[in-house]
Protein 1
Amino acid sequence: MDIRVAVLRIEGTNCEDETVRAFRALGVEAEAVHLKQFYSDMIKDDEVRSVWDYHCLVFPGGFSAGDYVRAGAIFSARVKSVLRKDLEEFIKEGYPVLGICNGFQVLVELGALPGFDEDKPIAEEPQMALAINDSNRFECRPTFLKHENRGKCVFTRKLKKEIVMYPVAHAEGKVVFPRGKEEEYLERLIENDQIVFRYVDPEGNYASYPWNPNGSFYNIAGICNVKGNVFGLMPHPERAFFGWQVGREEEFFDGKYVFESVVDYLRKFY
């Protein structure tokens, strides 16, 4: 089967090319697709796309719509207005959806994460937020992540390393839950095996700033939905896919595992 991946873009996204390149390096048919190609009657016939043309959807990093209102808010509102029904069915069918950095923000604003309800994969309103970093500034540096998922997340099943390094580049990446419900949410995430990555120091210890670059609750760097096929994370695996991207001599680096895992998942089940 020819696996097809769509990396969705609008004005302001800026990591779609790296993401497309990562999938193509694994022999996957991937393309950057503008959101308007799914709904606008001004698009040429040969450029019109449907969600069902693809086996995986990716919301890449960047600053969609300039991050006005809130990071990811405008992109998610546009997706919700034109693709909600198809996207909900896509998720229910088990197809994977990935959100990286700004894409994680989009999935949170969309109500697709934390995604506690398997029968209703997109909530009516956001159930968590990615707030301004504690430092009150843009943070751009390598981060170390501890892989804590026990096998539910389809994007990390081939990850054998306990600690990986992916860079971050964001101003709004602090995971927060409704005030007074933090522990309740945390218990649900742990019980459901939805926590995927947590920030750690180089020795693998949970640590505060600068190792946790944003002050995220429980050092959370990435989570998946209860079904395991929607995954959002703030660090950028596409920027650590090839060794040369992080100054290493080896051909591939830690970011490869995310893309390799979902490709393997699709080859086995679809």
Protein 2
Amino acid sequence: MNEFEQRLTEVENHFQHNDIDLGYRRLIDCVLDLADKSFYQEIIAYSDIYYNENSSNETKIAKAIQLVEKLKQATPPPYHTEDILLSTKNVEKAYNRRKFKLHPITFNLKSREVVGLVGENGNGKTTLLRLICGELKPTAGEIDYQFTTAKPFSYELKTKLVYVPQRIEVLYGNLMDNLQFTLTCYGIDSSENKLLAKVMLARLGLWPYKDLEWRQLSSGYKMRFELARTLLRRPKVLLLDEPLANLDILAQQIILEDLRYLSQSMRNPFGVILSSQQLYEVEKVSTEVIFLEQGKLKLQGNKQEEKADFTIIEVDVNNTKEELLTAFSSLDLKEIKFNGGSYIAYFDASISMNQIFAAIGNSTLQVKYIRDISKSSRRFFVN
């Protein structure tokens, strides 16, 4: 089974298990990978069914499976390897009129990777993004763009390396006109233009709003639209500064999940660096997390491979600290402290979450919330 067949099988499984929303988005990804106008038309027709309030789930699933069967007969798209897109080598930035300094940062970004850039406000996240995109020049160190021979700070580089700031630019006109204009600027002005614009609107959850003016969108949907417009440019590197700031919790999860899936495109893969204060959600989709504190690198590494010195949990209970200590008395508890709403408990690294759950189950604790933060950058915020 090749990569494309495997992806189609996953889409089929989503629909068969009634995960219609995820199956729909992943189905569009497969259509985009094929880059075939006839399949663009098919998924547009299916989108009318998907968003029709009178369409039953059974109809949506059946029609989707029919389209999957057609996609299985198509020639699979090429699969590009995961090459290094850019490297930063001891990049620093000092400001003459400010005391703040970004200390040496070194990391690689590969195609299909999502690098999460986390830390509190004013710790250098935006500075690092602006250095990479060429809006700022580093005081020391260098940035090596390996996906192009274009010179730093050139227009040619910025066509493939796209920076989306937290405050996006104001646009005029309706969504379709803006997307079609973007496609025309990048050489797609045939019959494919309108089809591809519609497909991308569907992919980013904007299908019900395709006839609206940009100014009529909420701030969260404006960010979705900016992503749609950006992805039509087929970037190699996508830099996002606080893309989750104006989104609700569910929308944050969907956008991050979409970025991970879209970056793994078979035909047009790209790498993502995104800054955010939504630690848990970013860590779920990131292949690497860079944590900045006062301009210094506090944490860098793959969250699956990082070794923790302690098993650390964050727990919120309707109990006193003494009752919590009693519940954990049989475990090797090193420290427990209150963090303004929840407790942070540090156990010896040999203590597993299963043991902690067992201790809670054998107690009278009324747990409202519990989370393992042993490998999460969240632990730096609660120290």
Protein 3
Amino acid sequence: MTKEHPPDKTHHHLPKMTEEEDHKKNPTTKKRYMASSPIYTSGPYRSICTCLSIFLLLAGVTALTLWLVYRPHKPQFTVVGAAVYDLNATSPPLISTTMQFTLVTHNPNRRVSIYYDRLYAFVSYKNQAITPQVALPSLVHEHRSTVAVSPVLGGRAVPVSLEVVNGLTMDEAYGVVGLRVVVMGRLRWKAGAIRTAHYGVYVKCDVLVGLKRGFVGQVPLLGNPSCQVDI
């Protein structure tokens, strides 16, 4: 009688998983594989990232350098002369006046020109306009240049409050009238072939003039007229 022997387990081996199957079943192994794979550590992917980083760095340095070199400064305004040809406040609530102011504007930039578009000017008293808005010609300011303009403001009656009429009457009797010359419009800066977008500009110059009732012509400016430029 033949004796049956148990099957020899040493001759039966489980199929060995390939490296790809091991990666699919074991996420940790997959991550280690990806981290060590040459496609993630070198080659085109890494070269593209390096080139992009260098490009962004150079672009940032270039933009900063251009800003430091060409950054525009606000223009400067000064009132250097004034004349009053008519001031009639005897028919409230209307007032009629004709005035002329000489304004000098300076471009302090060494490399940037200024282009003024659609400029308007008027005179106010106690924050109320006493002349209609007058359009000024467009101005071009080359770098480090100075331009003078002498607009004639007024010419027709405008409605005002009783406070303005009484205030002007009292100031004329005293001999000193405080006025504000306002210039507003749009400007843009130009550096070489590059022009910026339009920016709103608002200039207000507070002046004290020596004026007596009935006087016509050039009037003295008292003190140092100051102009504030907002952009």
